[in-house]
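In response to reviewer comment 3 from the previous cycle, which asked for concrete evidence that the modeling workflow produces usable outputs, we include below a single protein chain processed end to end. The sequence was submitted unchanged, and the resulting structure tokens are shown without manual editing.
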Amino acid sequence: MSGSTLTKAGKKVYLYRNTGTYGTPVWNQITNRRDASLNGTATEADASDADSAFDETIVVSRALELSTQLKWSTGSDDWAVLKTAFMADPSTSIEFAVMDGPIATTGSTGHRLTCQITQFNESYPAKDVLVADVVAKPTPNADHVPEEYTVP
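The workflow returned the following structure tokens.
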């Protein structure tokens, strides 16, 4: 094998929710998920002036969106926890970790972010299993902002 390029299947990425506190996390792996994605976007402002030869842009804010598809499962409480968080008024915040390896393994890297569930769309297909498309977005948190995280 030439080179040192490594690839990883998406199903080998780990999605967790914290059932403890930020300082003392208790990570529960969400195993009944199908796909997951963490999408980042930036809001831009036009920084061009009369002397600009090209349009110039500065980033004024960033947004993250965690999305996943959950399979309904009697053996997992993730469906109920995430749906309850979505339905709660006021909305309940949940801390997530999206990692490239087990969160108990030193050197695993990924992202930690505290979110509120902004979408919980249930689907009842006739020829597939019951699923929910879930979207979570960061919410104000006194403990931390979304961050890249490496297990110490």
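The two ends are 31 Å apart (CA to CA). We consider this sufficient to address the reviewer's concern, and the full set will be provided in the supplementary archive.
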